[in-house]
């Protein structure tokens, strides 16, 4: 039995061309990019190219890109770095209840340091409502952080409209674009964001790498101290081989974005239609919202997450849930709890399926058949 991977929102397979780029760099370019000799200069060339490619991908300047160890570190640098550097202007932060834990746990830590955080609700479609954000804004608000695409539901947030709303306010605007990058076109100037987070392993690049866009007007305090790498915003010798792979992944994502978008949309539609054809009772969380095509969050009435995921895995289908599963209990998804209520059955019977490089029409069809059989067995 060959397992079928439907969990690309968690991580993606490394693209073969990415692996080739990394292997070549490991073998031929081991120098420290801060060294002035020829070995260092070759490594520096790889780093400079990567920074340029990353910047161009979001229509930014090379000097605005900070390479990090991933999306989590980028979120931490953006949120904590801005908060600490600007607390003289105020100590109020606004975010949403549906953010990734890289954001939520970071602002929770800032609350322990005396910052005040407003957590915005979302409607039943998983969307942030502009009026609520407008009502939450205060003179002492120094940071608003709202994710571009939710990692559990795929719902796209109104980032451009939020940027427009905040343009005349002192607050900085950060968006976690980890699930959007590679799926949606991103122009930081049009979005009017000050900081933006990207992760490599969500676009078929290596794990342990990402970047943070920082607008040149942002006052940011470094969280680590050491060398002068990344314009003193994130010290430490850069992971050149991984960065070489990340560069290849970015170029592939940009070149193939429209093709991938259509393919994943086809996979999603085929998967859902097969469930319908099998008479499966289900609903899509966030169905009426604008969503990326590669993520669907499906509620199966009369089931529970643990039983579903266990049976899916035993049948060779890899999927996931926003719920934290432990022995004998399931903690409801914080995202779905925000969309509905904590007591809603959707919070403990919903599964996220996400499509990508590991999929084709055949294995998506096979996965849908297996899912349908399991759900039927668990509900009859």
UniProtKB/TrEMBL annotation:
Cofactor(s) listed: pyridoxal 5'-phosphate
Reaction(s) this enzyme catalyzes, per UniProt: (sulfur carrier)-H + L-cysteine = (sulfur carrier)-SH + L-alanine
Record-stated family: Belongs to the class-V pyridoxal-phosphate-dependent aminotransferase family. NifS/IscS subfamily.
Keyword annotations of the record: Aminotransferase, Iron, Iron-sulfur, Metal-binding, Pyridoxal phosphate, Transferase
Aminotransferase class V domain: residues covered: 4-365
EC number(s) reported in the record: 2.8.1.7
NCBIfam families for this protein: PRK02948.1
Any Pfam family the entry gives: Aminotran_5
Keyword field contains Methyltransferase: no
Listed GO MF terms: cysteine desulfurase activity; iron-sulfur cluster binding; metal ion binding; transaminase activity
InterPro entries linked to this entry: Aminotrans_V_dom (IPR000192), Aminotrans_V_PyrdxlP_BS (IPR020578), Cysteine_dSase (IPR016454), PyrdxlP-dep_Trfase (IPR015424), PyrdxlP-dep_Trfase_major (IPR015421), PyrdxlP-dep_Trfase_small (IPR015422)
Name assigned to this protein: cysteine desulfurase
Keyword Transferase: yes
């Amino acid at each position: 039995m060959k397992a079928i991977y439907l969990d690309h929102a968690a991580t993606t397979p490394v693209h073969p061309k990415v692996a080739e780029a990394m292997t070549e760099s490991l073998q031929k370019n081991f120098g420290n990019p801060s060294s002035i000799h020829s070995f260092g200069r070759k490594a520096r060339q790889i780093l400079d190219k990567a920074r340029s490619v990353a910047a161009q991908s979001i229509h930014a300047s090379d000097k605005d890109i900070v390479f990090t160890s991933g999306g989590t570190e980028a979120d931490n640098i953006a949120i904590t770095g801005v908060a600490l550097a600007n607390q003289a202007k105020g100590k109020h932060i606004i975010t949403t209840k549906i953010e990734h834990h890289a954001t939520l746990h970071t602002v929770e830590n800032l609350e322990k340091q005396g910052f005040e955080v407003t957590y915005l609700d979302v409607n039943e479609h998983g969307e942030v409502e502009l009026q609520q954000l407008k009502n939450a804004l205060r003179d002492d608000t120094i940071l608003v952080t709202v994710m571009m695409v939710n990692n559990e539901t795929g719902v796209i947030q109104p980032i451009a409209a939020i940027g427009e709303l905040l343009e005349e306010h002192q607050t900085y605007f950060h968006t976690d674009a980890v699930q959007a990058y590679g799926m949606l076109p991103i122009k930081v100037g049009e979005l009017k964001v000050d900081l933006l987070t990207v992760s490599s392993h969500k676009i078929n690049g290596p794990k342990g790498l990402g970047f943070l866009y920082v607008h040149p007007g942002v006052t940011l305090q470094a969280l680590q101290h050491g060398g002068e790498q990344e314009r003193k915003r994130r010290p430490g010798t850069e992971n050149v081989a991984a960065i070489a792979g990340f560069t290849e992944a970015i170029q592939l994502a940009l070149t193939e974005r429209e093709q991938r978008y259509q393919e994943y949309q086809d996979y999603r539609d085929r998967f859902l239609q097969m469930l319908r054809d099998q008479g499966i009772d289900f609903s899509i969380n966030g169905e009426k919202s604008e969503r990326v095509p590669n993520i669907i969050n499906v509620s199966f009435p009369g089931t529970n997450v643990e039983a579903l995921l266990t049976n899916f895995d035993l049948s060779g289908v890899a999927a996931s849930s926003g719920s934290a599963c432990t022995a004998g209990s399931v903690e409801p998804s914080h995202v779905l709890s925000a969309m509905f209520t904590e007591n809603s059955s959707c919070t403990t019977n919903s599964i996220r399926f996400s499509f990508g490089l590991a999929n084709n029409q055949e294995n998506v069809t096979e996965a849908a058949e297996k899912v349908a059989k399991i759900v039927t067995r668990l509900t009859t």
